[in-house]
């Protein structure tokens, strides 16, 4: 039997995180909005803000472990309701929901927990849901080389529910289909049926 292979996946480093500078900036933002940080309960808030955003923007490294598809399995593999939490890049407010990620195996199959890791990898940065959905699908297609990939994300955006239109309870649904899941109507319908998302 061919052994498992793994690809180390780590967050692409940017200019680096400067928590001290972030804390100073958070304090300036709060004061500019008329919120004093002089009280005991608010004095530590700028630091907590800085650390919270640093955590939101830093995905955990992981090994993308794949295994040979020795049995020639060619049916849909689907992980439903993977938790998603990200930050809208337009307002830096959170959006949260679930992702349904599936693929039709080719020569290799993927360790199931890695589907959640890949979602987290792309969600831990300022995002828009449309891009996040496509990034997960494209990345799986490139690194796993399956027959098809499907990704659906359902999320509530607090930039829409807590401010502006204040559309409480609204959810946004995005999808990306590649390969057989895009070209074959029956496979596409099976994918959407198993995710619980109704599409024509």
TrEMBL record:
Recorded metabolic or biological pathway in which this protein acts: Cofactor biosynthesis; 7,8-dihydroneopterin triphosphate biosynthesis; 7,8-dihydroneopterin triphosphate from GTP: step 1/1
Domain GTP cyclohydrolase I: 23-194
Reaction(s) this enzyme catalyzes, per UniProt: GTP + H2O = 7,8-dihydroneopterin 3'-triphosphate + formate + H(+)
EC number(s) given by UniProt: 3.5.4.16
Family: Belongs to the GTP cyclohydrolase I family.
Record's subunit section: Homopolymer.
Protein name: GTP cyclohydrolase 1
Gene it is expressed from: folE
């Amino acid at each position: 039997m061919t052994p498992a292979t793994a690809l180390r996946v780590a967050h692409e480093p940017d200019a680096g995180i400067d928590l001290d500078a972030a804390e100073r900036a958070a304090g300036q933002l709060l004061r500019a909005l008329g919120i004093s940080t002089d009280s005991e309960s608010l004095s530590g808030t700028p630091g907590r803000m800085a650390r919270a955003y640093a955590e939101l923007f830093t995905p955990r490294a992981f090994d993308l472990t794949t295994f040979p598809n020795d049995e020639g399995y060619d049916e849909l593999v689907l992980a439903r309701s993977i938790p998603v939490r990200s930050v809208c890049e337009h307002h830096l407010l959170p959006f949260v929901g679930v992702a349904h990620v599936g693929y039709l195996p080719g020569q290799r199959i993927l360790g199931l927990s890695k589907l959640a890791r890949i979602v987290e990898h792309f969600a831990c940065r300022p995002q828009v849901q449309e891009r996040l959905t496509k990034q997960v699908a494209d990345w799986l297609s490139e690194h796993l080389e399956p027959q098809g990939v499907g990704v659906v994300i359902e999320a509530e955006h607090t930039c829409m529910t807590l401010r502006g239109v204040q559309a409480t309870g609204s959810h946004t649904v995005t999808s990306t289909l590649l390969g057989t899941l895009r070209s074959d109507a029956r496979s596409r319908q099976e994918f959407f049926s198993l995710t619980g998302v109704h599409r024509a």
